Amino acid sequence: MKTVGFVTLVRDVVPVLVLLYMGFLEYSFCYEFCYRTVERRSISISLIGIYNVLLCAVLGTWIWVFVEGPGCMGVRVPPYDLDASYRRGRGVVEVEKEEDGEAADGELENPHDHRPSCSPPPQSHPISPTCLPTSPSPPPTIPPPSIFLCNSQGLPAYCTACQTLKVLRSHHTSSCSRCVPTMDHYCLFLGSAIGQNNYRDFIAFIVSVDCLLLLSVVAILCYIKKHLHPAIIVGLSVNIWLFLMVSNLIGSSLSMIRYNETTIERLAKRDLRRRLRKRKNTDVEVLTTYVNVRHPTLEGIRLVVPLSVKDCPYDKGTFAANFKERMTRCRFCNVEEIMEYEKKQFGADFKRKVYERIAHEQGPVRVFGEALLPAGTTA
């Protein structure tokens, strides 16, 4: 509880400190530097005007990040109907074991035998009422798409708090108490989660901040030979460091947009790459991303395919296409609209590579149903 309280305190304090530093910069740059140090009034007034326009852009985009919010699912997405595929997969595995002489008994699994359900048990935690419109209860299960992200057992991620499948690249965030579509990260300096709805506002914010810092650094460096007030020196030193940090953040964001990755997805890849490099096999299976894909030829059979750290499932092939998708805000009114959008998220080149791996038997491709599911497993 103490840790949670400390984290909450930090989340509340850091944005206030950022605002206080902005006020200090207004004093040190506009008053001490522009008004008292710069001799030519025309240059002084121009610098003050440009600086405050950029400052308004920074504050405006910051406010808009909160106004838009990171987004929410809108409706609960029920579990996929995977029971039939699971039973068929178990049957295929049993047949292969019999042919190899590895089966303990000779009976094929009866499709009517009891098998652990892939559907999650009923949960008692309601999703935030502010995120869900009043609508009829969703069906108990829905047909699975041809391909979706899953764990090593072939099951999609499920949020027990929101009682919904984690589609649309969503993650549950405690700061909002809900699942956020295309969740990117929580920005400590802004005090807000960054998701699908406010990602473009976040990009506009960091670009505005970088321009503001660049203006102040370049302007002060032009007068570095003069005797400068200590507040100007402090502001210059901090702004140089902040400019390098924010510029690096912009570069990283553009790189992630190029491959249509979120910060969470890239950090997960980095962690997996580090463990593989150090040969720490602990939790490698948990950290590895898998896709559950419909078999290209066998009806009713699904396969679980592991992905490498080089795979970019959502890459549409061009920077322009990925940029357009990341900057687009989507509103969904029902499960059908969500699933229709979910089907289009995977890139065509990625799906082609997955089916090539299946055809050429590249990597440890498993039949969905090969791993026994414990009773009560949540999808």
From TrEMBL:
One of its GO terms (cellular component) is membrane. The chain crosses the membrane at residues 13-31, 43-67, 202-224, 231-250. One of its GO terms (biological process) is protein targeting to membrane. It is a multi-pass membrane protein. Its EC number is 2.3.1.225. Residues 96-108 have a biased composition (Acidic residues). It is found in: Membrane. Residues 157-269 form the Palmitoyltransferase DHHC domain. InterPro entries: Palmitoyltrfase_DHHC, PFA4/ZDH16/20/ERF2-like. Residues 93-139 are annotated as: Disordered. It is an enzyme of class 2 (transferase). Belongs to the DHHC palmitoyltransferase family. PFA5 subfamily. This is Palmitoyltransferase. It comes from Brettanomyces naardenensis (Yeast).
